[in-house]
Amino acid sequence: MIVIYGIKEHLNPIKAQLSDVIHGCMQSVLGMPEDKRAHRFIPMDAEDFYYPGGRTPAYTAIEINMMQGRSAETQKALIKTLFQSLEAEVGLAPVDVEVTLKEQPPHCWGFRGMTGDEARDLKYSVKV
């Protein structure tokens, strides 16, 4: 699951485009299938969204939750691909994007009535 935060006046107009670009990066780097898009957008009032100095009101925070298993090289490739694609396709400067990868062991995931370590029918590999 991916959670995207931003100031609502900047985030709302680009939500669909952000979703497409983020999912495209997940597909190209991690091999995620087309139908595995799970994005949650949190548009916030400016007074509720504090961000670091040197950023603009377009600052966007992206949290990517995933099962453990991807190599450090794969994780870094995902982050760098996101920066490049978001700048090229959405116009978000890398300085205005923060990406956090959050990994949990498969047994900490629950979906379709089972835990992640019980799933045997994933259409993608976690070990990339």
Automatic annotation (TrEMBL):
InterPro entries in alphabetical order: Tauto_MSAD (IPR037479), Tautomerase/MIF_sf (IPR014347)
A Pfam family that the UniProt record links to this protein: Tautomerase_2
SUPFAM superfamilies: Tautomerase/MIF
The name this protein goes by in its record: Tautomerase domain protein
Species in which this protein is naturally found: Halomonas elongata (strain ATCC 33173 / DSM 2581 / NBRC 15536 / NCIMB 2198 / 1H9)
